[in-house]
Amino acid sequence: MRKLTYYVATTLDGFVADPAGGFDFFPVEGDHMGYLLREFPETFPVHTRGPLGIEGPPKHFDAVVMGRRTWEPARAAGLTSAYPHLRQYVFTTTMTQAPDETVTLVATDPLEYVRDLKRQEGLGIWLCGGGSLAGALLPEIDELVLKVNPIVVGDGIPLFRRGFEPHRFTRLETKTFDSGVTVCRFASGVSFGRP
Q: Is Oxidoreductase a UniProt keyword of this protein (predicted)?
C-alpha cells in the first residue's frame, strides 16, 4: 500500500502559511536547500526545476494532494499546473473545472478519496497542504516530514485544523542545518482514542 506523507514547511509556532495563505516568509536559501533538492526533488514546482537542475524520475512521490487554498498562489502566479511531473489532486467544493488537464479537481470526501489512492499502485502520495485538508486526512497520514523554520508568526494557517484528537507519532530522523531549519521525520502511531 502507498504511503501518505505530509511534507510541509512550518514555523516554530505551528503555522504553514500566513492568514491569507501566503508562505513567502519561509527562507529559500541556506544549507538545508541542498538536502531538500537531493532528498525531495519532486516537491519543487515546475518553474524552478530547470534553473535548479532537477531532472529524472520522482524519488518518493508520484502524486500530490492539496487543498484549493494551497494551490491558489501558484495559479495566481500563472502556473495552472505547478507539478506536471506528478499526478495532482486539488480538493475543492468551489471549483468545477480545472484550468489544466494535469490537475484533477476532487469534490468528494478527502479521506475516502485518499484511501482509494493509497490502494492503487505507485510511489508515495505527497500531502502538500493545507491545514484543513491535513486535519481531514490525519487518520491516513503515514509519515510527517516537517521543515521546521526558526520563525514565529503568531497567526496563520495551522499545521492541522481539526478538533482535539491527539495522535501519536514516532520520531524517525532529525537533521539540523546552519540555516536554523530542522527537518524532522515522524512515522504515524495510533490516536489516543483508538484501540
A: yes
Strands 143-148 and 4-10: parallel
The residue segments making up the domain with residue 57 are 26-146
User: DSSP E strands: which ranges in 19-177?
Assistant: 61-67, 87-91, 103-106, 124-129, 143-148, 157-158, 167-176
Tell me if residue 70 falls in helix, strand or coil: helix
Contacts of 117 (CB under 8 A, 6+ apart): 2, 63, 65, 89, 125
| pLDDT tens sequence across 40-66 | 999 999 999 999 999 888 999 999 999
32 occurs within a structural domain: yes
Contact 176, 148 (CB under 8 A): no
